[in-house]
Amino acid sequence: MALSRRQFVQTVGIGAGAALTSSVWGRGRENSVWSALEPDLQAVERGVVCIASNENPVGPGQKVLGSLRALLEGGTRPGRYSGQMGELSEAIAGHFKVKTENVLLGEGSTEILRAATQVFTSKTKALVGTIPTYEECAGYAELIGNPVHGVKLNSEFKIDLDAMLAASKGAGLVFYCNPNNPTATYVGAKATRDFLTKLIAASPETTILVDEAYFDYVTDADHETHVPFALDHPQVIVARTFSKAYGMAGLRQGYALGHPDTLKKLRGWTASSGTGSLNVFGMAAATVAIQQDASFTANERNRNKVVRDFSMKWFADRGMKPTDCQANFMFVNIGTPAKAFRDACRAKGVMVARDFPPFHQTHARITLGTMEEMQKAVQVFGDVLGKKSTAAA
């Protein structure tokens, strides 16, 4: 008997598996379902610290902003359908040293995830993912009536590779978000390659979508992209986005990398299949962003690490254990329901993320803002949680 969303959320725990619905797959305020439930997340009021949505708080940088100014000042290009898809595809291909046939553009990586779910799942071919993770694939599979199977995380809130492998045999699509959202945990490159190799051997008809949205924030030494693996294995697709480290969440630009035969199956389900159907501002900004010197993402990673270390230490010093954070957000055991914590923080001018069942009674996801924002935020956290707080902690 199928569980309703409410029943599922009420009954699952860290050992849950079997079924999964969109209500337990979470990312940020970009999700339309949660936007409807919490409309206050749609706009940041003046003076409010917004650390709810895994955005880059410093934005895309002057080179990207300059490209947008040029479009506005010229005035004609935004008034026409754009032919920039080729230019952006070439820029991405050059960055990864691949061919343009290995690149598929999308309106944010969300469109790539939906397309993969549409193409590779069916009534008899389930979607498999962890509980919790980014909900887009599960929500879309549920929308089109295809089954979704959830796999518990291990005791460290990381993907349980053995359990994932067992659950994925015979599946249509496996969603592998790494680092995972909302837990911020990461599985090393070697272990991931081993998992992919084993799954392809055991279930060659299964497609694996590796979501590398937070790739540029990882500081773990065992860190490599799985794009080369995807080029050699048609069963694997890598999704990327400009919404995170590149600071372009509002411009909605993402892409997939993989074998041309696999991307060809997805192409008809994305906006890039039409003539000039992608956003001219997003494409112009992304073309400049991807061609920047590697120091741009390195600087953003370093900035984020300093803030991450400060924030994690603040919680750890007060007996609240964060997960092993490898992203621009953290998942913390605050020992109290997330909703009450969120509401109390909001009343004091700090916005943190929504619930993430089945851990919403104990854990909160907190995006990492600027250092100034986090120093203000921890003062509020200290007041709300009854923990002694100093900005210098």
Any chance you could write out the topology, listing elements then pairs?
Elements: H1 5-11, H2 32-37, E1 49-51, H3 62-74, H4 85-96, E2 103-106, H5 108-120, E3 127-131, H6 136-143, E4 148-152, H7 161-168, E5 173-177, H8 189-202, E6 207-211, H9 227-232, E7 236-241, E8 254-258, H10 260-267, H11 280-290, H12 295-317, E9 329-333, H13 338-347, E10 350-352, E11 363-367, H14 371-385
Parallel strand pairs: 1-10, 3-4, 3-5, 5-6, 6-7
Antiparallel strand pairs: 2-8, 7-8, 9-11
Q: Could you characterize what this model shows?
A:
This protein is an alpha/beta fold and 393 residues long. Helix content is 39%, strand content 13%. It contains 14 helices and eleven strands. It has helices at 5-11, 32-37, 62-74, 85-96, 108-120, 136-143, 161-168, 189-202, 227-232, 260-267, 280-290, 295-317, 338-347, 371-385; strands at 49-51, 103-106, 127-131, 148-152, 173-177, 207-211, 236-241, 254-258, 329-333, 350-352, 363-367. The chain has a seven-stranded mixed sheet with strand order 2-8-7-6-5-3-4, sandwiched between helices. Strand 5 (173-177), helix 8 (189-202) and strand 6 form a beta-alpha-beta unit. Helix 5 (108-120) crosses helix 6 (136-143). It is globular. The termini are far apart. Mean pLDDT is 86; it is low at 1-43.
